Amino acid sequence: xxxxxxxxxxxxxxxxxxxxxxxxxxxxxxxxxxxxxxxxxxxxxxxxxxxxxxxxxxxxxxxxxxxxxxxxxxxxxxxxxxxxxxxxxxxxxxxxxxxxxxxxxxxxxxxxxxxxxxxxxxxxxxxxxxxxxxxxxxxxxx
Length: 142
Description:
With 142 residues, the chain is mainly alpha-helical. 57% of the residues lie in helices and 0% in strands. It has helices at residues 6-11, 15-28, 36-43, 48-58, 62-76, 111-126, 129-139. Helix 4 (48-58) crosses helix 6, helix 5 (62-76) packs across helix 7 and helix 6 crosses helix 7. The chain is globular. It starts with 5 loop residues before the first helix and ends with a helix.
């Protein structure tokens, strides 16, 4: 990395000019990060409405869907990227969130992957989403 000559630095007496020069230098040396990758990552995150539609497709039984929906509403408000300090993540607040990778590598942003994993978890641990909801109502966790 090269720096501007000392004479050029002396001419930049105003802080705004110095900051602008540093930004240009960083950009031309490849140190500035582009914003496009972050925008692309958030673009793949499913909205609450999309997540609910996916869940209805994966859980056609109305009683089981309602129970699943109740849990997800309480756990994450249907926010695919919901996270809490305990390490729980996603629609179903898997802890750690990386457990959902068993359902797909896109577990951090895909409602379908998270719902698939959550449904399997509820079925294997409680027998059904309705049984998981019954447990949740008593314990406020599942």
